[in-house]
Amino acid sequence: MAVSLSKGGNVSLSKEAPGLTAVNVGLGWDARVTDGAAFDLDASVFVVGENDKVLNDQAFVFYNNKKSACGNVEHQGDNRSGEGSGDDELVSVNLAGLGAEAKKLVFAVTIHEATARHQSFGQVNKAYIRVMNQAGGTEIARFDLSEDASTETAMIFGELYRHGEEWKFKAIGQGFAGGLAPLAANFGVNLA
Amino acid sequence: MLELIRGQRLPLSSITHSSSVEVAFDIQGSLALDLACFGLDAQGKLSDDRYMVFFNQPESPCQSVRLLTPTTFGLSLAEVPAGIDRLVFTAAIDGQGTLRQLGASRFRIGDVGLPKVACAFAGEIFAEERAVMLVEFYRKDGAWRLNAVLQGFNEGLDALVHHFGGEVAEVPPAPAPAGHVSLEKKVAAAAPQLVSLAKKAQVSLEKARLTGVRARVGLILDGSGSMHNQYKRGRVQEVVNRLLPLAVHFDNDGQLDCWAFGDLPQQLGSITLQNFHDFIDTDHGGWRKWELGSRINTEYRVIEQAIEFYRRGNGATPVYILFVSDGGIYDSRRIVKLISEAATLPIFWQFVGLAGRNYGILEKLDDMNGRAVDNCNFFALDDLHDLSEEILYDRLMEEFPGWLKAARAKGIVA
């Protein structure tokens, strides 16, 4: 039985799934039913250190950089078939392989060209993030973003982070104005 | 004043603590937009048609939602029933065009006469949409919140009703012939007094997915003595008025074929937008002078005559016949035989019992076995005024779509 978190809540993945070495993180939202300009949502992962900045530029994993330099974080893109079907985007993380300097993985979703298209998270319904054990596919934790988002064009859904010897997952649900570029800059990504 | 952008949400309490709220729209540009407010249940469905508030139904039953002017709604949020979870304000294009052509428009929300927030929107945020949800009020954690939705549907009002209703029949709409003018426009040009009925008919037609269907429409009127009072009180004329917009919609000629019957049938003149308004009192000398033999009920003769009429040179165009009677049926056996055999013809029979009691076989025709398709429906009214016009149109269009589908499948209808 997966742990269902509310905003701000956290759970020890290591305790929920003893022997855990790797997870898949699924992110999803309701396909919209209305017509109009296309709506693209993209998931990104920031692998950050003690100072909350990315370890290096390849530690910003997104659609243009699908794998971290260490190879332990991989963006699987659309997950419309196969395991964990139903998620819109899937990221696999080899927790056991991550170096000690990787303290935290931040999972965010941004709306592509939101400003030009006059789009925001106020138009996105039933968003969620869930963490599954790669071995067996069991869902360990889940967070349904029940807050009513509004004009934000980027949203941090959740975080995987080290707590002593454990890996924990925290439900964030925090909006961020400005989209992917300012979000990336916030985590110290050099976009130049 | 606080300016909202698309997708923005906020608690209503951040703009007003009053339960009386005014929502005003300022729509610019050449598009003709019809505004409406849909009161939806927790599942997002319009479970009660009376909570679609628009020019034709300007108040919800509890008066918590009122259309005050063509572009202003008044809300009494404390009075909104608990079953209504969401109030969605929509705009749908009446006629041609897309929302891309919308001018610099805005809505304002606030206390009565004192707007507190505004939201500007224009064609640039839309593509091919023809109907749009502009703003919604919704309950969350016991309080009302606002969302500047500004999202819509290319298929127009039809898609909106579908989105909120799920009552739309499954018959795929036949493509509308090129140059097909909207019902309301046709009626507005020739008979402005019928525009309000035409709009209501249009909504029912869209719900039943019948907007692209071509058909002929016939009316058969019981002229027997017991109907006297219905004629005298003008109720029969009202039946004509209500049916005519459907005929104009379905029929390129825009005319309604009409018969009356007593012991004998008589085909009357065709009813059109030009002659309808005193048709019952004037056609063929007026209803008192119609040549119907003795004023008793002999249904089968008029049914035979109508069948014969549509058999000649009608091909496979569907025919919708409204048969109005106060009952007192004669020779049920012949009626059963005629209607059963007529199931292979492209004719649908809608029987309506008006102000009578003994409808006999008419009530049972609907459930008869042994027909190629179910080609008739029946419902009864004590008084035409017992049903709102909207519900009347819904009922009149209740089984017609299903018949069309079945008859098409069997090759009875083109």
UniProtKB/TrEMBL annotation, chain A:
CDD domains: TerD_like. Gene3D superfamilies: sav2460 like domains. Residues 1-187 form the TerD domain. InterPro entries: Stress/Tellurium_Resist, TerD. Pfam families: TerD. The keyword Cytoplasm does not apply. Keywords: Tellurium resistance. GO terms for biological process: response to tellurium ion. Belongs to the CAPAB/TerDEXZ family. This is Tellurium resistance protein TerD. It comes from Azotobacter beijerinckii.
UniProtKB/TrEMBL annotation, chain B:
PROSITE patterns: VWFA. GO terms for biological process: response to tellurium ion. Keywords: Tellurium resistance. Residues 216-396 form the VWFA domain. Transmembrane segments: none annotated. SUPFAM superfamilies: vWA-like. Coiled coil: none annotated. InterPro entries: Stress/Tellurium_Resist, TerD, vWA_TerF_C, VWF_A, vWFA_dom_sf. This is Stress response protein SCP2. It comes from Azotobacter beijerinckii. The lineage of its organism: Bacteria, Pseudomonadati, Pseudomonadota, Gammaproteobacteria, Pseudomonadales.
